């Protein structure tokens, strides 16, 4: 039975990459770098600000720290799937725009592989790209000649991971995620003027990535009193080149003669993912209250990025485009009475907040920082023989802030369903 379940899970996961490639953003900021980065939190910690490194519980899949997989017990198979709906508002220069998006978000699973060793697999997003906008400006002091630029892009990057966590000692656990990292984007900029004999230039940027990603994790769990358990966690993600080409096609059309000329430029091995370091801790008090905090550092500043120089027509890798990204998060989870008989006593109530600095520059200016406030519930699902499955519902309000930049306000609703069933139990008939 165990083998059949594992094969079924792998077959189901194989169908998910096509869903994961649909963009879930319409943000103009997703045109920079590798797009708008996903926080990779799941249903259980979305409402807690995304904290994860110090969380350890066999009732959910914590893919952000693979050391936590060893907490799953031998009778449990976990399957967690989630969807997200998002409403966004953009403001600039007295103008406002509202958008709506929604899509499949993630699917993960976990079970005990052998004593003290847990296994997990799943599909999660890494970043999203999706935008379409234009602007028109006067050319110099001429009030009749205008220049229009149209920006359009779509794509994103995802990872399918296999992970294992090993409880080495009573207190210490180690883990690793090995991921297939893939994705693509297509970005275009069209530049034209309202003059009848002017040229129309279109620059199309494309890439396709098929690579890997490796992340290591560790957790130390220690009772500090009769009612308190402290868990400290840390993660390291290996940065490396992705081995993907950056392709740029330039088409110039003369509107008067209808003639078109083109040029194709390529940069080999143009993209990288950064080294990532994370650390966090959680305190589990009286079996019903969890307090947690995390810090994450992504070392983007040392990476190069392909940039087109319009002045001399070159397409080269340049440094100074990225910034190191720092993120802090804190969250709380409270269950009034774990062994209570009333429904509201068994619900988990969650709140959290996070703040992240930008990882890219817009011209010579730093991109917008991100502030997110979240809250959510974990509602137990009952059936005739099991009450361990959970419906996770959370809401997030986020704001991207930067001096003289577009103001972006985002409201998300996340719904995640965690199936937690005793599929490996052996039934006995008297």
- Overall outline: elongated
**SS elements, strand count:** 23
Strand-residue proportion: over 45%
Structural class: mainly beta
Tell me the series of helices and strands, N- to C-terminal. Answer: HHEHEEEEEEEEEEEEEEEEHEEEEEE
- Kindly state the mean pLDDT as a whole number? 89
Instruction: Report the oligomer.
Output: single chain
For the largest sheet, list the strands in their spatial order: 2-3-4-5-6-7-8-13-14-17-18-21-22-23
Roughly how many Å is the radius of gyration? 24 Å
Task: Please give the share of residues in helix.
Answer: under 10%
Low-confidence stretches: none
End-to-end separation: 22 Å
What kind of sheet is the major sheet?
Answer: 14 strands, antiparallel, barrel
Number of helices: 4
Note the main attributes of this structure.
6% helix, mainly beta, 430 residues, two-stranded antiparallel sheet, elongated, 14-stranded antiparallel beta barrel
Overview of the structural elements:
The chain has 430 residues and is mainly beta. The chain contains four helices and 23 strands. The strands form four sheets. Strands 2-3-4-5-6-7-8-13-14-17-18-21-22-23 form a 14-stranded antiparallel barrel. The radius of gyration is 24 Å and the shape is elongated. It starts with a helix and ends in a 9-residue tail after the last strand. The mean pLDDT is 89.
Task: Characterize this entry briefly.
This protein has about 425 residues and is mainly β. It is about 5% helix and about 60% strand.
């Amino acid at each position: 039975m165990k083998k059949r379940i594992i094969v079924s899970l792998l077959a189901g996961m194989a169908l998910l990459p096509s869903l994961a490639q649909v963009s879930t953003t319409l943000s103009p900021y997703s045109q920079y770098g590798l797009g708008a980065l996903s926080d990779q939190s799941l249903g259980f910690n979305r409402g807690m600000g995304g904290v994860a490194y110090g969380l350890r519980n066999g009732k959910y899949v914590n893919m952000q720290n693979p050391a936590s997989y060893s907490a799953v017990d031998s009778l449990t198979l976990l399957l967690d799937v989630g969807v997200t709906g998002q409403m966004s508002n953009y403001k600039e220069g007295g103008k406002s725009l509202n958008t709506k998006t929604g899509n499949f978000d993630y699917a993960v699973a976990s079970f005990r592989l052998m004593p003290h060793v847990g296994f997990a697999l799943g599909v999660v997003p890494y970043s999203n790209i999706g935008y379409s906008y234009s602007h028109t400006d006067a050319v110099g002091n001429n009030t009749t000649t205008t220049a229009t630029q149209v920006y359009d892009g779509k794509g994103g990057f995802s990872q399918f991971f296999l992970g294992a966590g090993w409880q080495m000692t009573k207190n210490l656990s180690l883990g690793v995620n090995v991921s297939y990292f893939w994705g693509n984007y297509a970005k275009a900029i069209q530049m034209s003027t309202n003059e009848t004999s002017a040229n129309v230039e279109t620059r199309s940027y494309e890439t396709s990535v098929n690579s890997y990603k490796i992340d290591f994790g560790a957790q130390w769990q220690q009772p500090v009193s009769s009612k308190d358990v402290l868990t400290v966690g840390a993660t390291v993600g290996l940065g490396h080149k992705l081995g993907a080409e950056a392709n740029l096609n330039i088409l110039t059309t003369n509107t008067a003669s209808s003639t078109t000329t083109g040029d194709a430029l390529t940069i080999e091995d143009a993209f990288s993912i950064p080294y990532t370091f994370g650390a966090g801790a959680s305190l589990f008090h009286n079996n019903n209250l969890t307090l947690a905090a995390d810090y994450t550092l992504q070392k983007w500043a040392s990476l190069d990025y392909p940039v087109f120089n319009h002045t001399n027509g070159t397409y080269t890798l340049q440094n100074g485009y990225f910034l190191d990204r720092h993120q802090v998060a804190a969250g709380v989870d409270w269950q009034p009475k774990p062994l209570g008989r009333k429904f509201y006593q068994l619900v988990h109530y969650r709140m959290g907040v996070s703040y992240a600095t930008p990882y890219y520059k817009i011209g010579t200016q730093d991109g917008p920082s991100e502030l997110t406030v979240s809250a959510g519930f974990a509602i137990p699902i009952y059936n005739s023989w099991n009450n361990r499955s959970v419906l996770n519902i959370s809401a997030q309000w986020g704001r991207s802030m930067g001096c003289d930049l577009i103001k972006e306000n985002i409201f998300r609703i996340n719904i995640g369903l965690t199936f937690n069933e005793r599929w490996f139990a052996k039934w006995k008939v008297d």
